[in-house]
Amino acid sequence: MIDRRLIQNFDWILFLVTCILAFIGVFTIYSAAKTLTFKDGTLSTLPYYIKQIIWVGIGIVSLFVILFIDYRKLGKYSYVVYGFSLILLILVLFIGKSGMGAQRWFSFGPISFQPSELSKLFLIISLAWFLSEERSTPMRLRDLFQPVFFFLFLPLLLVLKQPDLGTAMMIFFIFTSMVLMAGVRWKSLLIIILPAVLTSPFWVKLFWNSLKGYQKARVLVFLKPDVDPLGVGYHIAQSKIAIGSGKIIGKGYLSGTQGQLRFLPERHTDFIFSIFAEEWGFLGSLVLIALYFFLIFWGIGIAKKAKDRLGALIAIGVVSMIATYLIVNVGMTLGLMPVVGLPLPFLSYGGTSVITAFMAIGILMNVKMRRFMLFY
Amino acid sequence: MLENLQENKNSDIQKRLPYLGYAILILIALIVLRIWYFQVLKGNYYRELSENNRLRIIKILPPRGIIYDREGIPLVENIPSFDISLILEDIYKEGDTISRLAKLIGIPEEEIKKKIEVAKRKEPFQPVKIKEKTSWEEVAVIEARKVDMPGVFVEVEVTRNYLYGDLGAHLIGHLGRITPEQAELEEYFNFPRDSLIGQWGIEKSFDSALRGIPGERIIEVDALGREVKVLAEKESIPGDDIYLTLDLNTQKTAENALGKEAGAIVAIDPNNGGILAFSSRPSLDPNMFSKGTQKQYWTEMMNNPLHPLMNRVTQSQVPPGSTFKIVMAAAGLETGKITPSTEVNCQGSIHFGNRDFRCWKAGGHGRVSLHRAIVESCDVYFYELGKKLGIDVISKYAEAFGLGKITGVPLPSEKTGLVPSTEWKNRALGKPWFPGETLSVSIGQGYLLVTPLQMAQVSASIANDGIIYKPQVVKRINGKNGYIDLLPEGTKIQINNGTMKFLRDAMAGVVEEPGGTGHRARSTIAKIGGKTGTSQIIGMKERVKSENIPKRFRDHAWFVAFAPAENARIAVASFVEHGGHGGAASAPLAKRVIEEYIKTINKSQVASNK
Questions:
Q1: In terms of Cα–Cα distance, which of A208, A355, A372 is closest to A305?
Q2: CA distance B450 to B516
Q3: Contact assignment for A304 to B14 by CB distance below 8 Å
């Protein structure tokens, strides 16, 4: 039932770049996790890099599965799936397994699964569906109430309750960029921003109080690096040393001393960039950033050429998601951002994050493949 | 045609897209700039740091605040203790080092390996304690062989020495290692994972003042983990000292008075609620706990049939016996059900419902007024009074005197006791209240439960015309930048001063008048007012002398008192578990404590007059 034109339009370049990134990820994890001695409880007998290969495999399969479903069909059913993912988020509050002081994991037997990761994709599609419906463009203030409540306020409330600072940031950025791209009147924008700025002390306080102790510590360290609760500042200092010591050409693969010496915590997940930059130096870092840069701007190109508003907005959502991941995660290892626990897509170890990233690319390709198709 | 139509629909988005591109471009450019700064501009600096290895942050623990008695006599001191620790990353050959170390300090290799395995999951470069509280000999041996075993070192930790051993141990408390749950709390963030913090008593409830704020030192170390250079240092802020309301001499007397008996003596200042003495026996030695939990001692204490871990002053919940008659008398006078001149003819027992309620005096007291009924502790008088009041009025007055709820003393895990009422029985037991039960409560038996601290508070409130002060243990917190005096917090009971004066006279009569049950507390130093109490453990069919039954079935002996009878300076509750009769077993102990304290304040008055 698949149109031959679909296969002709398969985006080989995007697929290739994605695979190169995943490939770099497996190699870096091999290097980073060599000296890891603790077990994370899931499939614990396999080394991390093997598990990552399995995740990448599952990711590629999910990418293709998504290709076969027309994104307009995805959009049509997105509210249901989005509602379901919100319910999952509520469930995780009650029956989730607590990892690192926060409840954001589900476990089904040996597989642990983080629903807030996947919920970002559903958020993107259903928000795009919502914004693409006939309505006055650019949006007036009263057009904004509904999306703000359903696509910003509600998910934020749920993930902050868990609490997952990184996802909350992510949701905020995805929402903001999609709504702004869909168009908001200047006047309405001012009406929102001015009071928000004026009442910001109150919101900041509310937000601060909703954080858990370790998160407060991380934000504190980011704002004032000289206070050092929990040694978080110490980890950032170590991360900076790792990156900086790579110099221009790096120490060579498997020769990074900082990472190998257990200076860095979470070095196979959140701090994977530090390991990479230490071993491959500034040149390597440039190549890596360039690959992401390509991914992002290729995505913007897809948005531009998309057939309809739905496709364009979906592509914008995926692009802003990948950009936020990249900027927050790498910014974190460089001390530019607080340590919020967002992975680097394709590189960081972790099933949910890898699969979500591949699915996101799948959605992007989906939009591109169908740009010449007529509506049936 | 159609395609054009579709594209037109997107044209506004297409126009806005470049702005998204610019925003992302700028942010990525910033990231690249930052990477360039670290790797190219400062690359040499960081390479050097990473090669010489190693930057480490060493926490500097602040000295813990000292606890003093009211006169400024220190009760605790900080002493160094030596632990043998490892830094895993500095070990040269793990197996080799472990076997050498095992031989030197006499700990099986397996045990060391287990500790290392646990530590590997934690943060890097944190010392792993292998043996705590090591002797000087072992410290010397390790120091001498250190060169052969990189990674092994002697860690100095400051710990507590409780100068008076088990004296006031339940009040002062002890330290313990931070638990994993506590480590998650914001207040302990600055502390290393296995720090010693207050885990019991005042050490716990005033931990935030006592513990101070740790500092840190960023150091550079060489390949053997030896300190090469201090890069930065932030000093620690010492903990605040605290001054207790406790009087050391009075405390010693209380501890000695109880001696080997199980029980509690608590003395408070009726004028502000300050705790003057706080003894729960059998006690325990906080020095055994001060350095982590010493397992063997802990199990010993857990299995001791006399429960030394229990803080009897705040956690013992027993019937108050006849000491409750003062609350009854207050209720009777306030409600107007009786006047001081109301008389009852005591025949040794009364019949009520379908059973006999006995007076402790088999022959009866004859015609007694309220004053004599308190002095001689006539049970029949209070049975009659109880009938007139009913349980709910009794419970209302008992609660007014602070029974049935925590006093709010700043110590962990205080118990509430129990003041029964019809509503309570319905709720808790699902049964209606029987009038006969009111009679039991009237002489301080039945469901009624109190703690010694609550009874001391009752006594103090009578001495001070009806003010219930929240018991205070700390009077001053002395920090680097000055001190804070903690002020008394009191609430007034709505009871006439006349009633209070009557009760004081009656309680003075208990001690001073002929036939008074508390005559053993009679003192030449101060006029003492008191009330005896004997709380039954088991019901006896016949009247039996308590000396003739096994100790564990004997009654608890109570005595509550204050002195001097007018303008009291001290109020005491003395409680001896299975001590027998209150007048015999408990009154002399309270007297000793009162005399010691009155002597102490007289002396200091003479001294200040000179």
A1: A372
A2: 24
A3: yes
Measured from the Cβ of residue A82, the count of other Cβ atoms closer than 10 Å reads 24
Supply the CATH classification number for the domain B248-287+318-609. 3.40.710.10
What's the DSSP call for residue B62? Answer: P
Structure tokens at B559: 């005595």
Number of Cβ within 10 Å of residue A217's Cβ equals 23
pLDDT classification of B421: cutoffs 50, 70, 90: very high
Q: Is B92 on the interface with A (CB under 8 A)?
A: no
Lowest mean pLDDT among A209-213, A275-279, B144-148, B268-272: A209-213
Q: B59-75+165-244 in CATH: which number?
A: 3.90.1310.10
pLDDT tens for each residue of B132-177: 777 778 888 888 877 777 778 788 888 888 999 889 999 999 888 8
The half-sphere exposure of B314 on its side-chain side, counting CA atoms within 13 A, is 19
Architecture of domain B79-162 in CATH? Answer: Alpha-Beta Complex (3.90)
* Residues in chain A, total: 376
Token output for B238: 């010492």
Count residue pairs from A and B with Cβ separation < 8 A. 158
For the whole model, what pTM was predicted?
0.61
What is the ipTM metric for this complex? 0.88
Do B250 and B276 contact (CB within 8 A), yes or no? yes
For residues B564 and B527, is the Cβ–Cβ distance under 8 A? Answer: yes
Residue contact A303–B43, C-beta within 8 A: no
* CA separation for the pair B299, B294 (Å, rounded): 9
Residue B114, min C-alpha distance to chain A (Å): 14
Per CATH, B59-75+165-244 and B79-162 having the same topology is answered yes
